[in-house]
């Protein structure tokens, strides 16, 4: 069973005033089949964690380890991480002008699966996945994220998740900007992938409403660059009622 292990992870970004430490000792273990929700105040470092795991060059790991099934993830290039089974659905998906959704997905699937999917079965696979996510088939011929609405971008991220079937899925605020129907559709997509029991999910969110659709096994509070409390789903309810004040008090302004 695939296991992602994050051990005492420290990450910095370069700022005008020099390097700033954003992650200050993150410890987390995510196993295939488990769903972990990460909640925390703005600017606490949640997206930094997501990008660092995916290998964004802007972030420098200054300490700690990340392994997937014992393999050193931090040593891997971005594409190697994807091939190893790490998937990131970004908070702000980027436009890729000139590349159609259909080409993009096939190229990504080829890279991750190690061989090009057979065209006929692939076309069917994409069509069915798009239908499940209630996406207009015309999207397949549009350029990646170009002119997509916020909700359409998020559906496209989940479409990738469904087709690429990673071992570890990191979903960074996949619920933001979704209307109620889209939230349900997107959550159903995540649950389908989860239902396989083959993916470990790290769900970064601000709102408990998505957790009503996607029931997490574990909830973690992220504050000042690390996980400061962990619990079960009841922790999300507590956060909704009490906010984050108790976790940020006395910390650096972030
Ligand atoms: N290039 C950069 N230069 C300066 N500061 C940066 C840079 N990149 C990230 N930061 C800072 O790192 C901190 C953590 O940002 P991050 O986006 O990880 O937080 P977050 O918890 O995901 O926030 P939110 O909930 O608002 O999305 C913020 O204070 C942010 O301003």
From TrEMBL:
Pfam families reported in the protein's UniProt record: ABC_tran
Domain ABC transporter: 4-249
Name of protein: Fe-S cluster assembly ATP-binding protein
Protein keywords: ATP-binding, Nucleotide-binding
Family designation: Belongs to the ABC transporter superfamily. Ycf16 family.
Keyword ATP-binding: yes
The keyword Nucleotide-binding is annotated on this UniProt entry: yes
């Amino acid at each position: 069973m695939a296991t992602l292990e994050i051990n005492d992870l420290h990450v910095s970004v370069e700022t005008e005033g020099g390097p700033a430490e954003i992650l200050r000792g993150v410890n987390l273990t995510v196993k295939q089949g488990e769903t972990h929700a990460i909640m925390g105040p703005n600017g606490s470092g949640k997206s930094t964690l997501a990008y660092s795991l995916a290998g964004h060059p802007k972030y420098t790991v200054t300490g700690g380890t990340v392994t997937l099934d014992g393999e050193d993830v931090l040593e891997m290039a971005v594409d190697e991480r994807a091939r190893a089974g790490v998937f990131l659905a970004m908070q702000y998906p980027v436009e890729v002008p000139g590349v159609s959704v259909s080409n993009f997905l096939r190229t990504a699937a080829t890279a991750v699966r190690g061989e090009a999917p057979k065209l006929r079965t692939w076309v069917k696979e994409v069509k069915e996945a798009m239908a499940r996510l209630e996406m207009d088939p015309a999207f397949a011929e549009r350029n990646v994220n170009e002119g997509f609405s916020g909700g359409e971008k998020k559906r496209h991220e989940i479409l990738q998740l469904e087709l690429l079937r990673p071992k570890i899925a990191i979903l960074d605020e996949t619920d933001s900007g979704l209307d109620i129907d889209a939230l349900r559709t997107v959550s159903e997509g995540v649950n389908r992938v989860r239902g396989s029991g083959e993916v470990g999910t790290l769900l970064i969110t601000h709102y408990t409403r998505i957790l009503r659709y996607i029931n997490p096994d574990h909830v973690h509070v992220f504050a000042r660059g690390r996980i400061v409390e962990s619990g079960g789903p009841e922790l999300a309810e507590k956060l909704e009622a009490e906010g984050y004040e108790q976790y940020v008090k006395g910390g650096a302004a972030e």
